[in-house]
């Protein structure tokens, strides 16, 4: 199922403190499972989600390099935490603090990915929003060919300026 001309709106939904959005995908990012909270926040019916690419909920305010970072970690069989702005079927949005990790079978072969998303720290969201806005501006200014490098440079400079790794930055933001 592809998103058909969904126009982003300013309608924000807020995760509840005890909510956990859970989804699983195959190795190509196609959704194989989504819990009731995922269905609720995404606004899609279960049959619309199953088999769809997980980016069905990707909001255009998300810098592309964030997903490149995510896929780079997963390619190395590492878990990753991130702040993500998702878009519902109605164009509304919701922020999540996500944990994505590979799934392995009993033979230790990677067979897919699982993502568990929860309420982000409300103090961190404005900070992340500003960083993502700068990254998106860099992507647009650089053009499609150099967008990833430009956006990645913004993130890299932020990490260098703060003297932290990506993981340390995410942990600090979630514990504000």
Describe, in plain words, how this protein is organized in 3D.
- The protein is α+β, with helices and mostly antiparallel strands and 176 residues long.
- The protein has one domain (21-174): Beta-Lactamase.
- Helix content is 38%, strand content 22%.
- It is built from six helices and five strands, in the order ββαααβββααα.
- It has helices spanning 36-42, 46-49, 64-75, 125-142, 147-162, 166-174, and strands at residues 21-25, 31-34, 80-87, 93-104, 110-118.
- The chain has a five-stranded antiparallel beta sheet.
- A hairpin with a 5-residue loop joins strand 3 and strand 4 (93-104).
- Helix 3 packs across helix 5 (147-162).
- It starts with 20 loop residues before the first strand and ends with a helix.
- The model has no long low-confidence stretch (mean pLDDT 96).
Summarize the structure.
This protein has about 180 residues and is of the alpha+beta class.
Instruction: Give the overall silhouette.
Output: globular
In the sheet with the most strands, the strands line up as 2-1-5-4-3
SS strand fraction: 15-25%
Rg calculated over all Cα atoms: 16 Å
CATH class: Alpha Beta
- The arrangement of helices and strands along the chain is EEHHHEEEHHH
Low-confidence stretches: none
Helix content: 25-40%
State the separation between the terminal residues, measured CA to CA.
Answer: 38 Å
What number of structural domains do the residues give? Answer: 1
Helix count equals 6
């Amino acid at each position: 199922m592809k998103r058909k001309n969904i126009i982003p709106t300013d309608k924000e939904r807020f995760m509840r403190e005890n909510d956990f959005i859970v989804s699983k995908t195959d190795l190509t990012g196609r959704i194989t499972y989504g819990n009731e909270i995922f269905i609720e926040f995404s606004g899609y019916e279960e049959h619309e989600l199953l088999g769809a690419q997980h980016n069905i909920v990707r909001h255009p305010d998300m810098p592309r390099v964030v997903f490149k970072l995510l896929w780079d970690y997963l390619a190395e069989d590492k878990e990753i935490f991130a702040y993500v702005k998702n878009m519902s079927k109605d164009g509304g949005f919701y922020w999540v603090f996500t944990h994505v990790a590979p799934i392995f079978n009993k033979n230790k072969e990677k067979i897919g990915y699982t993502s568990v998303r929860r309420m982000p720290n409300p103090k961190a969201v404005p900070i992340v929003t500003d960083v993502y806005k700068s990254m998106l501006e860099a992507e647009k200014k650089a053009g499609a060919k150099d967008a990833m490098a430009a956006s990645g440079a913004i993130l890299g400079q932020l990490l260098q300026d703060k003297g932290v790794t990506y993981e340390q930055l995410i942990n600090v933001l979630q514990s504000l």
